[in-house]
Amino acid sequence: xxxxxxxxxxxxxxxxxxxxxxxxxxxxxxxxxxxxxxxxxxxxxxxxxxxxxxxxxxxxxxxxxxxxxxxxxxxxxxxxxxxxxxxxxxxxxxxxxxxxxxxxxxxxxxxxxxxxxxxxxxxxxxxxxxxxxxxxxxxxxxxxxxxxxxxxxxxxxxxxxxxxxxxxxxxxxxxxxxxxxxxxxxxxxxxxxxxxxxxxxxxxxxxxxxxxxxxxxxxxxxxxxxxxxxxxxxxxxxxxxxxxxxxxxxxxxxxxxxxxxxxxxxxxxxxxxxxxxxxxxxxxxxxxxxxxxxxxxxxxxxxxxxxxxxxxxxxxxxxxxxxxxxxxxxxxxxxxxxxxxxxxxxxxxxxxxxxxxxxxxxxxxx
Length: 366
Fold this sequence. Notes:
The protein is an alpha+beta fold. The protein has helices at residues 2-10, 14-55, 59-66, 68-94, 96-109, 126-174, 181-212, 225-235, 237-242, 260-276, 308-313, 333-343, and strands at 221-224, 246-250, 255-258, 283-290, 294-301, 347-353, 357-365. Strands 2-4-5-7-6 form a five-stranded mixed β-sheet, with helices on one face. A hairpin with a 3-residue loop joins strand 4 and strand 5 (294-301). Helix 3 packs across helix 4 (68-94) and helix 5 (96-109) runs parallel beside helix 6 (126-174). The radius of gyration is 35 Å and the shape is elongated.
């Protein structure tokens, strides 16, 4: 029976959930008004009885007891007055959080995302409590986005400013009298390298921006995934040959349907990073396993590794935990990897230890 109830709960649509909440809120407000009226009526009867006992056989009391219409009008007016006073007092207590929410929304409009609404855990109206909790959650998310935006702007400015300053400095040096032709050629090579770095950074940012605005994968074709990964390994042959790295591909023949060019970005970035951050003589292993549900591709290395703090932020744009190696990248590649994997409906996992290497596992649905 419990299993059946859980399955029914899972099949409830969001629209039905909203309708149930609206009915619950209307019912509570109706009960609230009903209780106010009943309480007002009881108080009126009690007060009427006490007045009769205190005043006794006065003309007014005689009129109230003899003329039922007059008595009914008096009781109705008294009941309405008491109900109005009770409703005004209780609604002030019940709806006090609304004033806080109104004030808080004005603060959010001014750009203050640190505002929070203080509320009691046991509010009479649970929907009001849920509204306050959701508002606080919204402001926390907005505050995080604002912080991320500021960090993004600072990092982006730094990444662009560094090569521009370098280009300007060496361009000025070339204009100084007495500089030899050999030095000028060296300065020109540096300027060319920094210009290429700027072009690659701009290209990576444009690619990431395009992927972030993309919601579905287009131009899907069937191709051999193992051959694509081998192609990515060969793409960096010059780099791993110069560092005398041991490359260990453990791949199985497998056909996969996806946007081939987009998925290549994943392997190029992961394999490129593994080679980049592995010292000479190290090992880079690329393995692949598959079952009926998913494909797992793992790129591991024996490089410098990362701390737990760095690993937790490694997929953020422009994040570079190791500043001593910041000139080797831009902090954009892994953000591109994660976005492509998410578009494919998969996930990526990272495991790393400082000084022992890193391992990135991409899991894609079959």
